[in-house]
Amino acid sequence: MHFPVNITIGQSVIPVHFLCETLAYFIGYRYYLYLRRLHHDLISDEHRLLIFVGAAAGAFLGSHLLGVLENPPKLQYADWVYFIGNTTIIGGLLGGLVGVESVKKRIGVRASSGDLMVYPIILSMMIGRTGCFLAGLEDGTYGIASYLPWAINFGDGIYRHPTNLYEIVFWLLLGISLTLFERRHQFANGFRFKLMMVAYLSFRFFIEFIKPAYFFNFGLSVLQLACLAGLIYYYKVFIYPSKISSTYA
């Protein structure tokens, strides 16, 4: 396979990465609307709209801010172009979380707004990371050099960990695990989303060790520090695991 993978139509070239990202947003949102019709939503349409605005604003700022901070030596050259061109999903999720919780506190919503988003997020992430994989070296989500039999040459002659594929497998296993759990149990309010966040932040903390990131002298990267901050925020999941399930289905 030649990377990056693009679709050529006449003289036009459409990056498959862009196509996958577009599909991820579209399919994920349609899946969310389907689940919202299927299950009773405790949050009104008006409040949902405000929460979405908070989530979008927080995700945008968080994704770009953490993306810029990801490589501290380059901060001295940072400008608006650099800010717009650097993003990270970890920053998007954490920034979106801050945006949502800020809006919910202001409008007085206490019900979980994230539980309905979990399965759409999982599906969207799998589609999006497929695009990241097909983008090859252009996307920057590949891993360090590896001699493992499944290592992939993304076009520079170096066989690397396909960390984007690892993430697709992670999301697939997480989705299956949550589905199997919910066949016998019912998550307490908000815990489906909390488990997703804890699982992903834990996964990203460890997978960053095999990615070509900038590491401080104490051995951790900016993204790993962000993951630790998120895990500390969700400390109750570790201290009170019995509260994950409210009733038996």
What is this structure, in a nutshell?
The chain has helices spanning 16-38, 45-69, 80-85, 89-107, 118-135, 163-182, 191-207, 222-233, 235-239; strands spanning 6-9, 12-15, 152-153, 159-160, 185-187, 245-248. The protein has 249 residues and is mainly alpha-helical.
Tell me about this structure.
This protein is mostly helical and 249 residues long. It is 58% helix and 8% strand. The protein has 9 helices and 6 strands. The strands form 3 sheets. It has a two-stranded antiparallel sheet. Strands 3-4 form a two-stranded antiparallel sheet. A hairpin with a 5-residue loop joins β3 and β4 (159-160). α1 (16-38) packs antiparallel against α5 (118-135), α5 (118-135) packs antiparallel against α6 and α6 packs antiparallel against α7 (191-207). The protein is globular, with a radius of gyration of 19 Å.
The portion of residues assigned to helices is: 55-70%
Largest sheet: 2 strands, antiparallel
Strand order of the largest sheet: 1-2
Overall morphology: globular
* Number of beta-strand segments: 6
* Topology pattern, helix = H, strand = E: EEHHHHHEEHEHHHE
